[in-house]
Amino acid sequence: MAFGVKPLSTTEFAHSAELYEYIESLKSDPNGNVEEHFILLHVLEIYLSNIYPNDASDQDVIKLWMMNWMDKLCSLENPYYLCNKMAQLFALVFAADFPTRWPDFIHEIFLQKLNCAASVEFFLRTLIALDAEVVDQDINRTKLMLDRNAQIKDAMREYCINDIAGTWINFLNVSSGVKIRELCLEVITCYVDWIDIHLVVNDATIPLIIACAQSEETSEAATHALCAIIEKGMSTEEKFKLVKAFLILFQEKKLFSTNADNVDLIIHTGLLVNTIALSLIDCYYDFLNLQQFDRVQECLHAVNSLLQPMLFCFSSENMEVSQTILDFLRRYIGLFKNNVVNPEFISFLRQVAIITLNKFEAPDNFNFENDGEEELDFFEYRKQLKSLLTTIGAFAPDEVLRILEENVKIFCDNWQQMKISQIETILRLTSILSEIFCNNFANCVTDAAIRAKNLILQVLSSNVTCCGISFINELFFDISSRYEKLLISDPKPLNSILEAFLDNRGLRHPSSRLRTRCAYLFCRFVKTHKKALGDRSQIVLSSLTDFLGFSSTSGFLTYDDQKCIYEAISALIIHGSLNNGMKKQYITELLNSLLKKFLDGMDRLEKCENTEERQLIYQFLCNVVGYSARVAKPFSSEYIKNCDCAEIFSRLISVYQCVFTLSIDKVLFPIIVNLCKNVQISPEHSITDLEYLDDVVLFADSYNEL
């Protein structure tokens, strides 16, 4: 087979020669046939994609190749992957030739050659490939391609889609075999969106699709086809009549399975219920806008008839099943946004709230410290549940709070006897209360807000961090940070939270991940509650001393962790209950210790000739300056004056300026810039005469805080 391709350049010819030699080598390989076949098909795909659409000189050769494949289908058994690849190539030819160059493509290649199951399967696979090539809206296309695709669809409606749809009736018959029925249903799912609805919704086709839905072998494919039919765009009146007829039919044919042992069938039930309900809700709003109130009530009545199968699916232990109807649940509750809420609706919300809160608990074998696919799927599921709880909380906060209050009481009284997943659930729900009720609880005026605030305070007053489990403790400290404004107004739990931060439940915990998180949260905790912690500042400072070194216990913390500790210590000194003399003493001792480390490092640098060791010293110096910058961060010019610390800060920067005479200035420059930005020294200790200060100021504008 020879195609009229353009002459090859020298480079292209060399590559072609290499390819030819490789293919020849595959011929002698017993296992090389498959790879050889795919290489040749890939070459053909490139030709059909790039050359053939603009050059029909090889059309006869292409037709011969296609006819030859179709003739051999019934006598040879081909693997699925090969059939799918060939279907893709046939679709490329169709897109290039139809309708202009080959208007009878479908009839000549397929409809006259459906002589066996293999040819039928290949025909259906080609239709699916054609959908991907021409219709699939998830693929970004140029305007030229969109215009081409629109032309192809218009021509198919005119020339061949009626005949194609006519074959589906035969293919959906039980005698056709499972694979053919599945493929045919997939084709219907793809095509129903843009063809005449009556080609599918008719007395011949629908009963066959329903029969497929009743069969376990084809239920999934039939469900997707039915959902696609229901979702097809049409006028509101037509959509309502269609969906209502389907609802009656599905109920008569018992398609809404309640067989809890068959997860797949329940998933299909959930998909059908969700699709019908969403369409009815769309009709509800359309009829409401048109002021057709009789139709509005009919829609509402039809939706209400789906509540029981919806609750059945939602309450399933299988996460995938309950996910199928979450959109229905949210939108159904939204129907009552501007309506009077009746007792029946509140009772329904109570049921949904109970199920939702129960589903928040992770499975028994769940690994909270893993980031695998299973864990990510569950966390995504939780986001959907949270959204649902927020919707419920807007209508019936009392129902959500009543359940939470019962669970939090059990938690506070006896968390030691609870499963880890139950503890995590209580803490997680506590952490999202502000989102569920859209309130930060700093200023509570409603009964619901006050009750929610009390729940948070109860949890934060518990000693659950004694469990020692890292992800539980991390979640607890996150909650204390999330509700920091609440703790400002009601600081009773602060002391117990502070103790948890300082001992082996927080900063001294064996988990490095938890220690890192605690270092950041502790710094934030201290800065937020600096006044409330003032009386305990000396005790806290003594507890943190061993975190300030560069070895031993401080090895628990990384450089970034230690920066947070230095900043927290500085804030405690400034805002603690110490007198100004003590504050000056503490700050001076702290900064002098850093200066000593810096000068020792400089001495080591002068004596060191080893490149690798010098790099380590550079990093050490960077760390020291970084710690100094964090100590300076909480200071304003007023605080420097009150604490009489201007002299030590001036000396600090004077010593650090020597770095600008070294080759390592690029390493330390941004950090020293940051230090200069943080420190506002009084005029009598001005640093304006420092060498390179103008450069520092200019450079500072281009750096954010490290």
TrEMBL record:
Lineage: superkingdom: Eukaryota
Principal subcellular localization: cytoplasm
Entry keywords, A to Z: Cytoplasm, Nucleus, RNA-binding, Transport, tRNA-binding
- What SUPFAM superfamilies does the record point to? ARM repeat
> What GO biological process terms are annotated to this protein in UniProt?
tRNA re-export from nucleus
Cellular localization per UniProt = Cytoplasm; Nucleus
Would you tell me the Gene Ontology cellular component terms? cytoplasm; nuclear matrix; nuclear pore
Residues forming the Exportin-T C-terminal domain are 302-551
Question: Which ranges carry the Exportin-1/Importin-beta-like domain?
Answer: 79-224
Q: Which GO terms describe its molecular function?
A: small GTPase binding; tRNA binding
InterPro entries reported for this sequence? ARM-like (IPR011989), ARM-type_fold (IPR016024), Exportin-1/Importin-b-like (IPR013598), Exportin-T_C (IPR045546), XPOT (IPR040017)
Q: Member of which family?
A: Belongs to the exportin family.
Protein function: tRNA nucleus export receptor which facilitates tRNA translocation across the nuclear pore complex.
Task: Write the protein's name.
Answer: Exportin-T
The organism is Dracunculus medinensis
